[in-house]
Design a protein that fits this description.
By secondary structure, the chain is of the alpha+beta class. Helices cover 60% and strands 16% of the residues. It folds into three domains: 66 residues; 52 residues; 54 residues, Roll (Nucleotide Exchange Factor Grpe, Chain A, domain 2). Helix 2 packs antiparallel against helix 3.
Length: 176
C-alpha cells in the first residue's frame, strides 16, 4: 500500500467515524427534544392545575364570606321556634305578671326576627302552596276536602333560607 491509499483509507475511516458521531448526536438531539416536549407538557398541566386550584380557593373564600354566619343562624333557629311556641300561649288566661313576662318574650322574639331579616334570613313561604321537595319535607299526609293533592295544609316546623341557600327545610303536612 502506498501513501496515497493509506491517506484515502484514513479519510474514509474518519468520514465513517464522523457519520457515527453525527448519528449519535442526532439520537441525543431527538432524545433531548422528546424530553423537552414531555417537560413542557408537564409544565402546562401543572400550570393549569394551579389555575384551577386558585379558582377553587377563590370560590371557597367567596362562599365563606357570603355564608359566613350560617352556622350561628342555624343554631338560632330552634330558639326562634321555642319563642314562637311560647308566644302562641293564650295570654287571656294568664295572670298579670305572666302576661308581662310573655310581652318580654314577644319583644325578644321581635328583636331576633329583625336581626335575622337584616342578615337576609327569610322564612320559606309554603302554606297553601304546591309541595316543593327542594325546600320542604313532607312528614304527614292527609286527605282534605276541597284541597288539591300535593298542597301544603299545615306547617310543622318552619323552613328558612339564608341569602339564596336553603339552611333548613320546612316540615309540612301535605294533602293527598
Amino acid at each position: 500500500m502506498n501513501n496515497e491509499e493509506i491517506k484515502e483509507e484514513v479519510k474514509c475511516e474518519k468520514k465513517e467515524e464522523k457519520k457515527k458521531e453525527h448519528k449519535k448526536e442526532n439520537k441525543e438531539i431527538l432524545k433531548l427534544q422528546e424530553e423537552k416536549m414531555l417537560l413542557n407538557d408537564k409544565l402546562l398541566r401543572i400550570s393549569a392545575e394551579m389555575q384551577n386550584m386558585k379558582k377553587r380557593f377563590e370560590d371557597d373564600l367567596a362562599k365563606s364570606y357570603k355564608y359566613g354566619g350560617e352556622d350561628v343562624i342555624v343554631k338560632m333557629l330552634p330558639i326562634i321556634d321555642n319563642f314562637e311556641r311560647a308566644i302562641k300561649l293564650d295570654d287571656s288566661n294568664l295572670s298579670d305578671e305572666l302576661s308581662k313576662f310573655l310581652e318580654g318574650f314577644k319583644m325578644i322574639y321581635g328583636n331576633l326576627v329583625n336581626i335575622l331579616n337584616s342578615l337576609d334570613v327569610k322564612e320559606i313561604d309554603c302554606y297553601k302552596k304546591e309541595f316543593d321537595p327542594s325546600c320542604m319535607e313532607a312528614v304527614l299526609t292527609s286527605h282534605e276536602e276541597g284541597i288539591a293533592p300535593g298542597v301544603v295544609i299545615d306547617i310543622m316546623q318552619k323552613g328558612y333560607t339564608y341569602k339564596d341557600k336553603v339552611i333548613r327545610v320546612a316540615m309540612v303536612k301535605v294533602s293527598e
